[in-house]
Amino acid sequence: MSKFFALIGSYFLLMRKVFTKPDRFSETWKQFVIELEKVGVLSVPLVAIVSIFIGAVITLQTSYNLTSPFIPKMYVGYMTRETMLLEFSSTMIALILAGKIGSSIASEIGTMRITEQIDAMEIMGVNSANYLILPKICAATIFNPLLTLLSFSIGLLGGWLIVTITGVVMPEQYEEGIRYAFQPYYVVYAIIKMAVFNFIITSVSAFYGYYAKGGSRDVGRAATNGIVNCSLCILISNLILTHVLL
Amino acid sequence: MIKVNHLYKSFDGRLVLEDVSVVFDACKTNLIIGASGSGKTVLLKSLVGLHDADSGEIWFDDIQYNTLSFAGKKKMRQKVGLLFQSSALFDFATVEENIMFPMNMFTGWSRAEKLERVNFCLQRVRLENVNHLYPSALSGGMQKRVGIARAIALNPRYLFCDEPNSGLDPRTSIVIDELIHEITHEFGMTTIINTHDMNSVLEIGEKVIFIYEGKKCWEGANNEILRTDNAELNRFVFASKMAQQLRIKN
Known about the structure:
The complex is a heterodimer.
Chain A: H1 2-18, H2 25-40, H3 44-65, H4 75-114, H5 117-124, H6 128-143, H7 145-166, H8 171-179, H9 185-210, H10 216-245
Helix pairs in contact in A: 1-6, 2-6, 3-4, 3-7, 4-7, 4-8, 4-9, 4-10, 6-9, 7-8, 7-9, 9-10
Chain B: E1 2-11, E2 14-24, E3 29-33, H1 40-48, E4 55-60, E5 63-64, H2 70-77, E6 80-83, H3 95-106, H4 111-124, H5 140-151, E7 158-162, H6 170-187, E8 190-195, H7 198-204, E9 207-212, E10 215-220, H8 231-237, H9 241-249
Parallel strand pairs in B: 3-8, 3-9, 6-7, 7-8
Antiparallel strand pairs in B: 1-2, 1-4, 4-5, 9-10
């Protein structure tokens, strides 16, 4: 138990080092722009591919399960929209990103730690935690909520394509379902969740990388621990945020 | 000048440095020697602040370094250059970007001024046309030289080198040693080198400190080291049977 509290304490101490005034704002900005591409833009293809298939699959499964003649077929579109918006485009995409971005951050920072590159920065008088981690957190927290909107839109497109191709539901009915009882607040809810999840992904994985010790096997272990704990934190915070925001 | 008074450092209850007191002279290449595990790397890392000493004093000229605040240490570290055993070059950056890094962080120089300084530092370590190469494209010796160029980029007053010759052939080792020696005298730095390479000791050891089991065991110059009566030091210096036989003959 004391180990657990020591771990939590170390995490918050690191965050205190991260959230300080940058040594040189222009350099942090440069890193931020680089990280926007690394953690955000380069995730677009993965998010797009996963979302289009999942959108199509949700549509098909919903239509196969709506067998009652008393339930209008437009509910297929409605269900697809709600599932994508409330859970898939934020939580599931965040779990996928935890694997992609989280492992990359933990192994990158972990390798810098064991090859003494972080020590070299510290010796120069640079706040290495601030220089390396802050741009990643900011880039992911600011940019990646846009991936939620992208995933949502592409998921709905995937559903529309599958109903058009297979004809399980009329495309007009699907479109009607998409528009039915739409609550704009759910978009805000999904964006807030995604921002929080991305903060968790970047900060937790960076924490495990920053305190990596030993050799290449330990960097691998740090990356694995980073992903596992990110995923756990995402699931717990999903529960809390859903209770608080809805 | 760097002065250490009664320095103690332990890890998990195991004493690694015990009552080390020593003065490292300015404008000299000061060498810390000792067997692997003797505590010399811990001493070097304690001096630069990568390890916090349990007790004792570390003075950088007239400033007590180990009691400075985080901000004070940060400011002081801009006067410190460190060459790591592994060179520790940033693998995401080119040679030019590596050397420019401290300038980007701590100076308001224009790009042209920074580039001029980069080229001066590279020229000083006898490297040319490598500006746009990544560290992975360089040999071990070249990486060490880039490490030295980065360490002297901001004209430090104190230069620390952790086993600068490890993994290098004897000829390249001598080149690196001479380079550090020249730079020390040219820029008037206090240089501290951690090594167990006897070639380095004999070549550039203007002041040599021998660490044995965490304690300072001997102190002197390179011309005294072969004639000392210190049994532990003799065991370290004349480690091979052949060296011992030669010593007996002489």
